[in-house]
From TrEMBL, chain A:
Residues 79-366 form the DNA-directed RNA polymerase RpoA/D/Rpb3-type domain. Residues 10-25 have a biased composition (Basic and acidic residues). GO terms for molecular function: DNA binding; DNA-directed RNA polymerase activity; protein dimerization activity. It is found in: Nucleus. HAMAP family: RNApol_arch_Rpo3. Its main location: nucleus. The keyword Cell wall biogenesis/degradation does not apply. The keyword Transcription applies. Keywords: DNA-directed RNA polymerase, Nucleus, Transcription. This is DNA-directed RNA polymerases I and III subunit RPAC1.
Automatic annotation (TrEMBL), chain B:
Keywords: DNA-directed RNA polymerase, Nucleus, Transcription. HAMAP family: RNApol_arch_Rpo11 (MF_00261). InterPro entries: RBP11-like, RBP11-like_dimer, RNA_pol_Rpb11_13-16kDa_CS, RNAP_AC19, Rpo11-like. Pfam families: RNA_pol_L_2. This is DNA-directed RNA polymerases I and III subunit RPAC2. Residues 12-82 form the DNA-directed RNA polymerase RBP11-like dimerisation domain. It comes from the Eukaryota. GO terms for biological process: transcription by RNA polymerase III; transcription elongation by RNA polymerase I. Its main location: nucleus. One of its GO terms (molecular function) is DNA-directed RNA polymerase activity.
Length: 368, 132
């Protein structure tokens, strides 16, 4: 790697070098991953890789800020897709990892079982309850640690009391049957030795949650089946939801999934005509190719929808293998976030980015 | 925690608790872009230990300063990502609402569809009839 003196002087003497262009095959190695029939080939990426040719491959902050782009393709209440251009995989991957494992949500953590005569075991029932997405903004809550008393700022309490009468048909218990208790737990603590003025419960709310939060803290989806009760069976329980992160348990993960793929690029090394073109169009399972009519009965294949390509490599195996080249653009990510409902996807992403910033700040302050 | 030698500040290993690939790989990337860095890499000594070691060797500057600069750069990059992303979301929302108004006002002429809808239709993988 060439020594370019101090960092501050760097961006200034880099400008003229930008004019240099790499020969095409090296530019492909620098910016693309080429997918051959057997395996993808990695190109070169490191900052000084093309220094001998006068190309600076490094990414300074200024350069990053100049080239970085975001385009939103789809944004709904609980899912979004956007293109992130000009960012390295390590950072895009950091965002993805944080989204899955480190952006907090609220989830049911404790189940106080009063009665369960259903066929579903207590543990299994508790696990099912834990996975129910709650409609509560985790940013308004605090983490609870082991010795903390559950209060209105760190715990949400729900009650479930359902029974199936004798002689009636089987009853399906849905997540909508969970009833929010804004005043906290209704179950008395087992050891009231002192005669206090008020019966102690499992929580000590100083204030009703109705007064703190604008909207009721219900469940996100009311139609999730929790259990089924036969005639004469009943479930009575109380649950406590707390704030947590996905790396402790997946129930706290705010995303159903978050993933990215690099932008596919399909190029023809040479023209594909007539019968071969027809065959190629048929071969692709997601219709990446189209036929272009050249008049007087001649046809030619064109790449019409490269974005749809799944890189199944069908087109680079067999007779067209030499003519088609599959690539992925190294710094162009198609990022998809599916939220489980607590927060909208665009807020989740912003939270994830902020989380990475906080990690950096923590390490900086630990070092100084 | 920093491990290095007292005489030579240009090479150090930073051992960070409660962190994993998420931070380490991003910082490794940023460090590798810095011309002052001669070598940088990270490792997780054991998957059951919740810590990561980041090795930084420089061409002369104190490794600690270079490492801190890299973290600072990463923060700036993140802030830029956040800003750009928020703008893109606002843009997207305003585009969508503008198009909805288009569609409303054109509701009588069934022949016209909005530009974006047209793009969506033509870019969907299965929407094109193979006969044409
Ligand atoms: S790799 Fe598969 S999906 Fe992509 S263009 Fe080739 S055949 Fe189509």
């Amino acid at each position: 790697m060439p020594k370019k003196g101090t960092k501050k002087g760097k961006s200034a003497d880099d400008e003229p070098k930008e004019q240099n262009k790499l020969p095409e095959h090296l530019e492909v190695q620098r910016t693309r991953v080429v997918c051959k029939a057997d395996a993808p080939t990695e190109g070169f990426q490191y900052a000084g890789a093309f220094a001998a040719m006068g190309i600076d491959n490094s990414v300074s902050v200024d350069k990053f800020c100049k080239n970085f782009k975001v385009m939103v393709n789809r944004l709904t209440e609980d899912d979004m897709e956007f293109d992130m251009i000009g960012i390295d995989a390590s950072i895009a991957n950091a965002f993805r990892r944080i989204l899955i494992a480190e952006v907090p949500t609220m989830a049911i953590e404790k189940v106080l079982m009063v009665d369960n005569t259903s066929v579903i075991a207590d543990e299994v029932l508790s696990h099912r309850l834990g996975l129910i997405p709650l409609d509560a903004d985790p940013r308004l809550f605090e983490y609870i640690s082991e010795n903390d008393v559950p209060n209105e700022r760190n715990t949400i309490v729900y009650k479930l009391h359902v029974s199936c009468k004798r002689g009636s048909p089987r009853l399906t218990v849905k997540s909508g049957d969970l009833e929010w208790l804004p005043e906290g737990s209704q179950l008395p603590l087992a050891s009231p030795a002192q005669s206090g003025d008020k019966q102690k419960t499992y929580t000590s709310f100083g204030q009703s949650q109705k007064d703190i939060f604008e909207k009721p803290l219900g469940v996100k989806f009311k139609d999730i089946t929790i259990a089924r009760l036969g005639p004469g069976q009943a479930i009575e329980l109380e649950v406590h939801a707390v704030k947590g992160v996905g790396k402790v348990h997946a129930k706290w993960s705010p995303v159903a999934t978050a993933w990215y793929r690099m932008l596919p690029e399909v190029v023809f090394r040479e023209e594909i005509r007539d019968d071969a073109a027809e065959k190629l169009v048929k071969k692709c399972p997601v219709n990446v190719f189209d036929i272009e009519d050249l008049g007087n009965g001649e046809k030619r294949a064109v790449v019409a929808r490269p974005r749809a390509c799944t890189l199944c490599r069908e087109c680079v195996m067999g007779p067209t293998g030499e003519q088609v080249e599959l690539r992925r653009v190294r710094d162009h990510f198609i990022f998809t976030i599916e939220s489980t409902g607590a927060l909208p996807p665009e807020v989740l992403f912003t939270e994830a980015v902020r989380n990475l910033e906080e990690k950096c700040e923590r390490v900086i302050s630990e070092l100084s | 925690m920093e491990h290095g030698s007292l005489e030579d500040s240009s090479a150090s290993t930073f051992s960070i608790a409660e962190e994993d690939h998420t931070l380490a790989n991003s910082v490794r990337f940023v460090l590798n872009q810095d011309p002052r860095v001669a070598f940088c890499g990270y490792s997780i000594p054991h998957p059951a230990d919740n810590k990561v070691n980041i090795r930084v060797q420089t061409t002369g500057d104190p490794a600690k300063d270079v490492f801190k600069d890299a973290l600072q750069d990463l923060i700036v990059m993140c802030q830029h990502v956040r800003g750009t992303f928020d703008n893109a979301v606002v843009d997207h929302r305003s585009n969508i609402s503008a198009q909805q108004m288009d569609i409303d006002s054109n509701s009588q002429g069934c022949g016209t569809i909005s530009k974006r809808l047209y793009q969506m239709l033509t870019s969907a993988p299965h929407s094109i009839d193979k006969t044409n």
